[in-house]
Amino acid sequence: xxxxxxxxxxxxxxxxxxxxxxxxxxxxxxxxxxxxxxxxxxxxxxxxxxxxxxxxxxxxxxxxxxxxxxxxxxxxxxxxxxxxxxxxxxxxxxxxxxxxxxxxxxxxxxxxxxxxxxxxxxxxxxxxxxxxxxxxxxxxxxxxxxxxxxxxxxxxxxxxxxxxxxxxxxxxxxxxxxxxxxxxxxxxxxxxxxxxxxxxxxxxxxxxxxxxxxxxxxxxxxxxxxxxxxxxxxxxxxxxxxxxxxxxxxxxxxxxxxxxxxxxxxxxxxxxxxxxxxxxxxxxxxxxxxxxxxxxxxxxxxxxxxxxxxxxxxxxxxxxxxxxxxxxxxxxxxxxxxxxxxxxxxxxxxxxxxxxxxxxxxxxxxxxxxxxxxxxxxxxxxxxxxxxxxxxxxxxxxxxxxxxxxxxxxxxxxxxxxxxxxxxxxxxxxxxxxxxxxxxxxxxxxxxxxxxxxxxxxxxxxxxxxxxxxxxxxxxxxxxxxxxxxxxxxxxxxxxxxxxxxxxxxxxxxxxxxxxxxxxxxxxxxxxxxxxxxxxxxxxxxxxxxxxxxxxxxxxxxxxxxxxxxxxxxxxxxxxxxxxxxxxxxxxxxxxxxxxxxxxxxxxxxxxxxxxxxxxxxxxxxxxxxxxxxxxxxxxxxxxxxxxxxxxxxxxxxxxxxxxxxxxxxxxxxxxxxxxxxxxxxxxxxxxxxxxxxxxxxxxxxxxxxxxxxxxxxxxxxxxxxxxxxxxxxxxxxxxxxxxxxxxxxxxxxxxxxxxxxxxxxxxxxxxxxxxxxxxxxxxxxxxxxxxxxxxxxxxxxxxxxxxxxxxxxxxxxxxxxxxxxxxxxxxxxxxxxxxxxxx
Length: 840
Known about the structure:
The protein is α/β, with parallel strands linked by helices.
């Protein structure tokens, strides 16, 4: 059990407390020595003196502590009536409480943590020094099986983790650490934290458990200058229960010996204690610790079957000496300006840090490297694009062009944000270098109008345009929207999806190839080889985060060198945009068109569905419509969730028998999907039960209610997208989130959506809670291969790395003066290709 002087939050001054305590303790001691006879003094008897003094407690004593002492006063007022045994008990209790009060308010003297001498972590004690010298003949590309201390058996198990070369192992970073470097005194142990103490053995006892004959226990009583603690180790198995073995254990920890103990501290009924402690007897207080774990920060790695944690640490220790001859790819001038340590030191310290400061310094260097390589590859891609020639899409001066005629027939004027972004795009299109621009805009900000105006610029300059959307629903909706305006402008357009009939496809492709078709709208079908343009000038990719970089490039390859405009209604946090789209210029439509209604968002429990259904009835009675969105199409045996098909039947047959209910999901064929959306838009359907197929693009101004069932199953950015399907008309709109989960984090996420309508704030929180892969929605989105860096926590390092990458590429675009960085980029590409090959 641990004991020591613990600091107290009490505010009583020791100088005021001691004069009150001392006479009380003297009187109690004298009464006990004289047989509890209620001694008579000059002015009063013992009991009256105690009752009076207790009543006059010192100034500044907390009320709770004062009450504990005052509770005994009643006993001293009736002291004469008490039996001898009751008097003894009362005096003993009073002495104990006063002693505890004195201890609680005694000033605590700071005690320095214990000292430990550690041998270097990369050369554990017991490892022959010759072996460390032998590895000098090897390099970072040496197969692990050839390195002394690894062996073919371990190498085959490491291969299961994708670790084949020495370089791979050194880049296999720990996922966590056990912080046994946290050196404290016994009184400073905190439950829930790992720690190391150095203490003296006061008592050593090894014995078989009286309850379980197959369990033996080693129990040590340890003390230091701040307190004492009981440390126990348990040994399961009959071989540990023999008297001889128990005596041997006991002799290993003789009385007076100095021991170092590391482990996780837990709370017990007797105070703090160690869980599964590591114990080592020190030859002296100055002797080094031989253990590779005690007093250190112990790395924790991802493991595989047959490969234990200790064995993996041994293998890493055998490979670390290779770093002595490993060149640093980062020039010394950059290291100094950014305050970074050398790469060899960083890799050594990430695997074997001596303390938190070393760990943070090594992590910062390696995170900087990851971001720098990422930004260099993006900068090179951007530089290569700028080197290419693209047809400048120049418009004839004067006169009324297609864009001006288009803006004139719109029933509304562009917002300032739309005009600004369109001007940036037109300036890009007029240059002889290809445009590569991303337009971000919150739900309903008017990106489609800007995109169409950009496509008309290309068409007016004598080129063709392509608009690619991720789903047939969205592609068809874009095509219908364009159909309202393009015929008035005498611009030919067509739609190409996987559902386009073969005769129509053949005619369409022929018109496209001979230049008669000016604008093609479609899905991934645009990427297919038979699709050939006559003179493709501009490619617009909607909801671009759903397409991979390779898909985007396949479409660009269909023209001589078309300009590229990508759009997203999913706000992307700055760190994510810099990492994934660092090769693109970014424009933001940061204002909403006038007339957009604010959306009232409510969070409801599953038991409140009837309230939600009541609101839907009210809104439909006013001529409005409602969406009901669910995460699943059909019931799942694995997930206890309501499905779209199930809820559709329930609403149609039981809840909304007087209303017209429709169904929309991704498994319907294109014609049925379009029929479901058309019926809802025309008012033939008043309630549309759907999956997230309505997440983007579906635009029905009369829809004023969005009910999202099992809202906890969606990401925040996705919920924000769904919410944007309402509030597009003149009526007040509602978004109802039904949360069936009791998870506190899920509720906190949804409460953010209730209080905020800022898409960027929501996306930032989504990034922190779910990570970049899920926020982008697809693994082929160009997400960088980051082993250590975090896009949520390392934004400052990313900004620095981006600035350095820009400086390097401006002065040396081909990195001819930076061979180390060229090699590092080549190694990174090799690792990515190896990883892709393993995934396939």
